[in-house]
Design goal:
The chain is of the alpha/beta class. It has 3 domains: 6-85 and 281-423, Anaerobic Ribonucleotide-triphosphate Reductase Large Chain, CATH 3.20.70.20; 89-269, Anaerobic Ribonucleotide-triphosphate Reductase Large Chain; 439-557, no CATH class. The chain contains 20 helices and 21 strands. Strands 1, 2, 3, 6, 7, 10, 13, 16 and 20 form a 9-stranded mixed sheet that branches. Strands 4-5 form a two-stranded antiparallel ribbon. Strands 8-9 form a two-stranded antiparallel sheet. Strand 14 (294-297) and strand 15 form a beta hairpin. Helix 5 (98-113) packs parallel to helix 6, helix 9 (229-243) crosses helix 20 (535-547) and helix 11 crosses helix 14. The chain is globular. Bound molecules: uridine-5'-diphosphate (UDP). The site of uridine-5'-diphosphate (UDP) has 20 residues, from loops.
């Protein structure tokens, strides 16, 4: 049985269910799942027959219908339709010449129009004020070009359904890095961008040693300016503290895990940071709903490992089929993507899994279980990818990859932790590996500014089970977002239902690191900070993220001036 909440139905009606030319909805949610399942399982015919395609369509339909696994939004929206673009994540190159810059803007617009997000490294652009030989003028620099990208996004709604999203990266030794760091400090500039500084280990060491730091011209490689590394770091921290941007991408850590170093260095990620990609690569994501994998065993509750193993296998096959039937927006993207066949299986409902198990989020027990769960998912994903490689062949660049010759795999990467901003609403669970955002809250929709009030279902259940004063408690919980000071609720229960801002930032980071340890790509996570957090707090989180081998880091202080592109957790 599928139980879709009002929230889920609203999201589906607004953006996912197919409509006729007059805007009338022409499918039910179950028909949507059927459409997606059948379209994806079409790929099965390539290696088998119609019977197999039917069988797998049935299996895919079941896992989606039960909300055990959902693919990223573009797959739900576009599979089995003439659009056919199913990936959420793309990275495009930005070269230092006007023609290719505008070609990239066109490609980005087309990707965003069909529901994908785009990431770019702007580090190859010559700095502001540099000579332009063809016109005799002066270059406007990366930040200025980013505004052109931003304006393009502003005017392209994703499939008429949501606003596009971008990631902009600039290397920490680019001459315009100071302007980049401050680029989002003004309200509403680059509002369709998340920005991240491309951090090198050498820079972090220079900060630690209080050394000087050279800014280098990307073309001539000459030193343009020398700064105090620590001063630059402090500016990064101050901007992140005040408006959430810039985040950091730890490019050396990312490239240690690059499965195909012979094909090039990775310089950028998709908008939310969970997929480092080479230029022109795209990646398909899907997420398992962990809250459905808790079972009663004797007198206690435990993770249902057997069922979890089964859904991982189905999900990896599903994503492999998606790579196959996907219609790529450009022949180069098709070629690069099919060369590596990167997929990103992740999770949602982690916080709810912990609540069901009675484990507070801010404990070592939770972090250790996080590692165990993700290790399990990674191992099963690798096994599924390997068995698909046997049946269908390894990814074409396998012989150029770090896996050659020991481990034949069908996908250069298998796992990613996506934010699941919208699919977690459809599945009615907590997003990604985030703690609960609030117990009772209003969810804001970017598209039409609608708001809906939502009560966490596990909290509601608990109140009913204990015969507590439901209305009274919910009213208070709505005011405060938490049940922190409610005496009617025993302290151990209040601990289990702690919300994002009650959880010390350190524990947010511990979960990110725990899941990163067993994730091929990256983990999208927001480290929530209370408004009282200090610059030192941000400094500590950013430094610890680097030394703990995170691939990137983003903080979000409660109620700062700015807002994020995808206000993770609160916007659909
Ligand atoms: N994304 C996007 N626009 C959006 C939301 C997401 O382009 O409004 C892309 C972006 O690449 C992001 C990825 O989709 O990193 C996954 O985001 P999320 O898991 O929140 O997407 P969902 O599948 O839940 O819609």
């Amino acid at each position: 049985m599928t139980i879709l909440t009002d929230n889920a139905q609203l999201v589906l009606r607004e953006r996912y269910l197919l409509k006729d030319k007059k805007g009338r909805i022409r499918e039910t949610p179950l028909e949507m799942f059927r459409r997606v399942a059948e379209a994806v399982a079409e790929a099965e015919r390539k290696w088998s027959d119609e019977k197999a395609a039917k069988k797998w369509a049935g299996i895919f339909f079941e896992v989606m219908k039960k909300l055990n696994f959902l693919p990223n939004s573009p797959t739900l929206m576009n599979a089995g339709t003439p659009v056919g673009q199913l990936s959420a994540c793309f990275v495009l190159p930005v070269e230092d010449d006007l023609k290719t810059i505008f070609e990239t803007i066109t490609q980005a617009a087309l990707i965003q129009q069909k529901g994908g997000g785009t990431g770019f490294d702007f580090s190859h652009l010559r700095p502001k004020g540099d000579d332009i030989y063809t016109s005799g003028g002066y270059a406007s620099g990366p930040v200025s070009f980013m505004k052109v990208f931003d304006a393009a996004t502003e005017h392209v709604m994703q499939g008429g359904k949501r606003r596009g999203a971008n990631m902009g990266v600039l290397l920490v030794n680019h001459p315009d890095i100071e302007a980049f760091i401050a680029a989002k400090s003004m309200n509403d500039t680059l509002r369709n961008f998340n920005i991240s500084v491309g951090i090198l280990d050498a820079f972090m060491e220079a900060v630690g040693n209080n050394d000087k730091w050279d800014l280098i011209h990307p073309n001539s490689q000459r030193i343009v300016k020398t700064l105090e590394a620590r001063k630059l770091w402090q500016e990064i921290v101050r901007n992140a503290w005040s408006n959430g941007d810039p985040g950091l991408l730890f490019l050396d850590t990312i490239n240690v895990a690059n499965p195909t170093p012979k094909l090039g260095r990775i310089e950028a990620t998709n908008p939310c940071g969970e997929v480092p990609l080479l230029p022109y690569e795209s990646c398909n994501l899907g997420s398992i709903n962990l809250s459905h994998y808790v079972r009663q065993k004797n007198s206690s509750k435990t993770v249902d490992w057997d069922q979890l193993a089964k859904v991982v296998e189905i999900a990896i096959r599903f994503l492999d089929d998606v790579v196959e039937i996907n219609r790529y927006p450009d022949p180069v993207i098709s070629e690069k993507t099919l060369g590596n066949r990167k997929i990103g299986l992740g999770v949602m409902g982690w916080a709810e899994m912990l609540i069901k198990l009675g484990i507070p989020y801010d404990t070592m027990e939770a972090v250790t279980l996080g590692e165990q769960v993700m290790k399990f998912i990674q191992e099963k994903s690798n096994a599924s990818s390997a068995s698909l490689a046997t049946a269908r062949g390894s990814f074409p660049n396998w012989e150029k990859s770090i896996y050659y010759p020991e481990s034949p795999l069908r996908h250069a990467t298998r796992t990613s932790i996506a934010p699941t901003g919208t699919i977690s609403v459809i599945a009615n669970t907590s997003s990604s590996i985030e703690p609960l955002f609030a117990l009772v809250y209003q969810r804001k929709y970017v598209l039409n500014n609608d708001t809906l009030t939502t009560v966490n279902p596990l909290f509601l259940n608990y109140l009913y089970e204990q015969h507590l004063e439901v209305n009274d408690i919910l009213e208070k919980a709505f005011e405060k977002g938490t049940c922190k000071d409610m005496e009617a609720i025993p302290p151990e229960i209040r601990d289990i239902f702690k919300t994002a801002l009650e959880i010390p930032p350190y524990w947010h980071l511990r979960h990110q690191i725990a899941f990163q340890k067993y994730t091929d790509n990256a983990v999208s996570k927001t480290i929530n900070l209370p408004s009282s957090a200090t610059l030192e707090d941000v400094d500590y989180i950013y430094t610890t993220a680097w030394s703990s081998k995170a691939k990137g880091i983003t903080v979000f202080r409660d109620n700062p001036l700015g807002k994020q592109v995808l206000n993770k957790g609160i916007s659909g």
